[in-house]
C-alpha cells in the first residue's frame, strides 16, 4: 500500500515536472528569441542609418560603418537595389530571393552553423531639401543561434535538475509521511493477525481508534470478532452438550443391555429393560430431531424468509388443548386473551411449534396452583404475544443466554429440569426468520414476548 501511494504521488509529480519543464522550454525559447529579434532589429536599424550620401556628385550612397561595432559572429548585407553596399561574410550566398519580400525574420544554415536573421527595407533620401533623390535600401542581418540554444538549454537543465531534486525529496517525504499515517493500520492488521480459534484477544490501539477513517473499521472488526468468538463458543458448547446428551443416553442403553445379558431374566424384567432402552432411544431421537430442525431453520433463514399467514389466537387455543392434560397433572391452569382475528406473517406450523415450546416451558416452571396466561395485542403493525408464568425469576446473568443452543439454567443437566436446551433457540430462529423478535424479561412474573408483523390482507 505504501509503495502504491508513493508511486502514485511520484508519478503525478513526474508528469507535473515533465509538463513544467516543457512549458519552461517553450517559454525560454520564446523569451530568448524575442530578445534576439529585438537585437537584430537594433543592428539592422544601425546599418540602415549607416547608409550615407557618397562624397562625389553622382547622387549615390555608400555604407559607412566607421566606429560601428557588431558581434564578430554576426553577418550582414546592405543592398541598394541590386548594388551591394557592404557585407560581412556571404550571408545570402548569391541567393537574390533572400532580400526580396517585406520585412520579416528568417532562418538559414551556412555550413554547419544555424542563423536567425531579419530582413528590413528602408528609404534613404539624398539632399531632401533640393534633389530629393530616393534610394531603396535592404538590410539583411543574421546572428548565430547556438548561443541562444545554449541559454535555453541551461534554463531547461536548471528546471529539470530542480524538478528531479524536488521529486527525490518529495518521494522520501511522502514515504515517511505515508508510513507514519498508515502505521495505525499496520498495528490494526498486526493485532487482527493474532486472532485464532483459541485466542480472541483484540485490543486496537488508541491511535487506531483516533483516526477518523479507521474508526468504522475498528468497530466492524470488534463486532465481527465478537460474533465469531460467540459462534465458536456456541460451537464448543454445542459439541460438548451434544456429546454429553448422547453419551448419557448411549451409556444407559448400553448398561441396560449389559445388565439384561448378564443372566437370564424373567419376561417382566426383560420388558422393563427394553422399555428403559426405548425411552433413552426416544430421547436420542428427540435430540437429533431438534438439532436437524434448528439446522434447517437457520439454513432457511440465510437463504430466504418463509412467508405465511396464521391466525395467532386460533393456534394458541389448539396448543392449549393439546397441553391441557400436562397442565392438569402439574396443577397449572391455562388462560388466554386477545383478539381472535389477529393474523401474523408466519407459517402456521412454525407458529404452532413456537407456541408449544413456550407453553411447555411456562407449565414446567410454574408452581402448582398458578396460572399460565397468553395475551395478544396489536400495535404499530406488530402483533405482540406475551406468555406469562408465576415461576421463579430468571437470574440476570442467565437472560442473555436463554436463546443459545443447548443452554440450560441447570448446570447439572438433570432430566427432571428440562429437555435438550434447543427449544428456545429454535423459537428464536423461527421468529426472526418471520421478521419478528422474541425476548424474555423478569417482572411480577416471567414474561416471554413474541412480536410478529401483522399480515396484510
Account of the protein in words:
This protein is α+β, with helices and mostly antiparallel strands. The protein has three domains: 2-153, Beta-Lactamase; 215-300, Helix Hairpins (Orthogonal Bundle), CATH 1.10.287; 305-453, 2-Layer Sandwich (Heat Shock Protein 90), CATH 3.30.565. It has helices spanning 2-49, 146-181, 183-193, 206-210, 215-261, 267-303, 312-322, 324-329, 348-364, 423-433, and strands spanning 51-53, 61-63, 75-80, 83-88, 104-110, 113-126, 133-144, 310-311, 333-337, 343-344, 371-379, 382-389, 437-442, 446-453. A five-stranded antiparallel beta sheet has the order 4-3-7-6-5. Strands 9-11-12-14-13 form a five-stranded mixed beta sheet. A hairpin with a 6-residue loop joins β6 (113-126) and β7. The longest helix has 48 residues, at 2-49. Residues 301-305 and 411-417 have low confidence and may be disordered.
Strand content: 15-25%
- Overall, the morphology is rod-shaped
Structural class: alpha+beta
Q: Indicate the mean pLDDT.
A: 82
Largest sheet: 5 strands, antiparallel
**Number of DSSP strands?**
14
CATH class of the largest domain: Alpha Beta
The SSE order reads HEEEEEEEHHHHHEHHEEHEEHEE
CATH third-level topology of the largest domain: Beta-Lactamase
Instruction: Determine the number of helices (DSSP H or I, runs of at least 4 residues).
Output: 10
- Gap from first CA to last CA: 56 Å
Order the strands across the largest sheet as they lie in space: 4-3-7-6-5
CATH architecture call of the largest domain = 2-Layer Sandwich
User: What percentage of residues falls in helices of 4 or more residues?
Assistant: 40-55%
Amino acid at each position: 500500500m505504501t509503495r502504491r501511494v508513493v508511486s502514485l504521488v511520484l508519478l503525478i509529480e513526474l508528469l507535473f515536472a515533465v509538463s513544467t519543464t516543457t512549458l519552461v522550454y517553450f517559454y525560454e525559447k520564446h523569451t530568448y528569441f524575442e530578445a534576439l529579434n529585438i537585437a537584430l532589429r537594433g543592428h539592422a536599424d544601425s546599418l540602415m542609418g549607416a547608409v550615407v550620401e557618397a562624397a562625389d556628385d553622382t547622387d549615390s550612397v555608400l555604407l559607412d560603418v566607421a566606429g560601428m561595432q557588431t558581434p564578430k559572429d554576426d553577418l550582414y548585407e546592405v543592398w541598394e537595389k541590386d548594388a551591394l553596399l557592404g557585407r560581412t561574410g556571404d550571408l545570402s550566398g548569391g541567393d537574390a530571393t533572400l532580400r526580396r519580400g517585406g520585412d520579416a525574420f528568417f532562418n538559414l544554415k551556412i555550413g554547419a552553423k544555424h542563423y536567425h536573421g531579419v530582413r528590413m527595407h528602408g528609404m534613404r533620401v539624398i539632399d531632401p531639401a533640393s534633389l530629393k533623390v530616393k534610394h531603396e535600401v535592404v538590410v539583411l542581418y543574421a546572428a548565430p543561434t547556438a548561443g541562444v540554444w545554449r541559454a535555453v538549454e541551461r534554463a531547461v537543465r536548471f528546471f529539470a535538475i530542480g524538478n528531479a531534486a524536488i521529486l527525490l525529496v518529495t518521494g522520501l517525504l511522502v514515504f515517511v509521511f505515508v508510513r507514519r499515517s498508515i502505521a495505525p493500520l499496520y498495528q490494526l492488521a498486526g493485532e487482527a493477525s493474532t486472532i485464532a480459534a483459541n485466542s480472541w484477544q483484540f485490543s486496537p490501539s488508541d491511535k487506531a481508534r483516533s483516526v477518523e477513517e479507521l474508526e468504522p473499521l475498528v468497530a466492524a472488526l470488534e463486532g465481527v470478532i465478537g460474533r465469531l468468538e460467540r459462534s465458536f463458543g456456541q460451537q464448543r458448547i454445542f459439541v460438548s452438550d451434544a456429546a454429553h446428551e448422547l453419551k448419557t443416553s448411549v451409556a444407559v442403553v448400553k448398561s441396560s443391555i449389559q445388565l439384561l445379558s448378564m443372566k437370564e431374566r424373567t419376561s417382566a424384567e426383560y420388558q422393563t429393560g427394553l422399555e428403559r432402552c426405548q425411552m433413552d432411544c426416544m430421547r436420542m431421537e428427540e435430540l437429533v430431531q431438534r438439532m436437524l430442525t434448528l439446522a434447517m431453520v437457520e439454513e432457511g433463514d440465510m437463504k430466504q424468509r418463509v412467508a405465511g399467514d396464521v391466525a395467532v389466537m386460533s393456534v394458541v387455543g389448539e396448543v392449549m388443548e393439546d397441553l391441557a392434560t400436562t397442565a392438569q397433572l402439574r396443577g397449572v391452569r391455562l388462560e388466554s386473551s386477545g383478539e381472535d382475528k389477529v393474523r401474523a406473517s408466519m407459517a402456521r406450523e412454525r407458529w404452532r411449534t413456537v407456541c408449544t415450546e413456550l407453553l411447555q416451558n411456562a407449565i414446567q416452571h410454574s408452581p402448582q396452583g398458578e396460572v399460565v396466561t397468553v395475551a395478544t395485542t396489536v400495535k404499530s403493525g406488530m402483533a405482540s404475544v406475551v406468555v406469562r408464568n408465576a415461576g421463579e425469576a430468571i437470574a440476570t446473568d442467565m437472560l442473555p443466554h436463554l436463546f443459545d443452543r443447548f443452554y440450560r439454567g441447570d448446570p447439572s443437566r438433570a432430566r427432571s429440569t428440562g429437555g435438550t436446551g434447543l427449544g428456545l433457540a429454535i423459537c428464536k430462529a423461527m421468529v426472526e426468520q418471520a421478521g419478528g423478535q422474541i425476548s424474555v424479561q423478569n417482572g411480577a412474573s416471567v414474561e416471554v414476548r413474541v412480536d410478529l408483523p401483522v399480515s396484510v390482507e
